[in-house]
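User: Quick sanity check before I run a bigger batch. Here is a single chain. Can you write out its predicted 3D structure?
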Amino acid sequence: MSDSKATSPASSLPLDPQTALVHSSYRAPEGFEAFPVGIHHASTVLFPNVAAMRSRDWREKLGYTYGLHGTPTSFVLEARLAEIEGGTYCRVTPSGLAAIAMVNFAFLKSGDDVLLPDNVYGPSKDLGQWLERDFQITARFYDPMIGAGLADLIQPNTRLVWTEAPGSVSMEVPDIPALCRAAHEKGVLVAIDNTWAAGIAFKAFEHGVDIVMQAVTKYQSGGSDVLMGAVIVRDQALNEKLELAHMRLGFGVGMDDVYMVLRSLSSMRLRFEAHDAAARKVAAWLKQRPEIVAVLHPAFEDCPGHAHWKRDFTGAGGLFSVIFDSRYSEEQTDRFVDSLQLFKIGYSWGGAHSLCVPYRMRGMRRQWQREGVLVRFNIGLEAPADLIADIEQALGKL
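Assistant: Done. Predicted structure follows.
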């Protein structure tokens, strides 16, 4: 190795060439500005001195302490997600389910009770059952259309009520203001999974909700390539509990993923409206088919809770379900799904590609009474006429 030495502005000492590789003397000039948000990666965050290290609080987004708690990249995304929802504080998480878990662990402890709608996102239901089994937190499931009747289910130890609008498979739209009034009269918090409306078509805080959860995986990403969640609140005291849960659970996110979501946000409303328009065309066509006995689309009058949707929502996005006539067996409807060419079989939604998934509802819902197989469609950004033609040829295979 050469004995030649270099110097660095970081050190007044002469440096070995190997050390100089680690401590570069170059600093980019100030004053750069562009539309994209810069990608700031970090595990270690540097402090100018010990006093700064000791005085900086990771819970206040006034400075940086460790990559787990965020960099300028994630702070920008959290601020923008809060703006979209009409909230004040936001924390992003590694997935939508992680966001749900963070809310539960922030506000529930052993001996508490949580209420969840019977049509809640499946993994959220599983999480509730796990809390009951292993953490002594009772998790009870209520009829999502109960409205003000929720008051009769609230116990002295009930701390949290989850809502979802609409149910992510069966598509009922609950009366969110009535549920919130019933919970708040008993001093209970209300959290909502607002993923279906993306914070665009339903303003949850304006309808009484305390905590908004989003699966940023869906419309915010739009590319079927990022897993991320977010929790948004307006109240500082609620945010402080969420910040502690976020830290204790170690819910960091990768800044490359954060950047991909930031890159997609500017087109989210346009994409959401395109999904919505196409879905209504496909759903209206399906409603005329003799093979289908029900189209579960909140914008259609015969969908459960349509009146609530019409009163409280401004759009519908691309997700809806249908129920096949009971004369068709599960084997036949599976053949229908397998015969689709443009629609792919897969979970999630909100991306450019259309998806289709059949569900066994009696295993998912305790009080499911409808006959016939339920199939859920996510309408992507393909031409609606092509999607209709694909469904028509697959129906011919029944």
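The chain has 13 helices and 13 strands.

User: Great, the batch can go ahead then.
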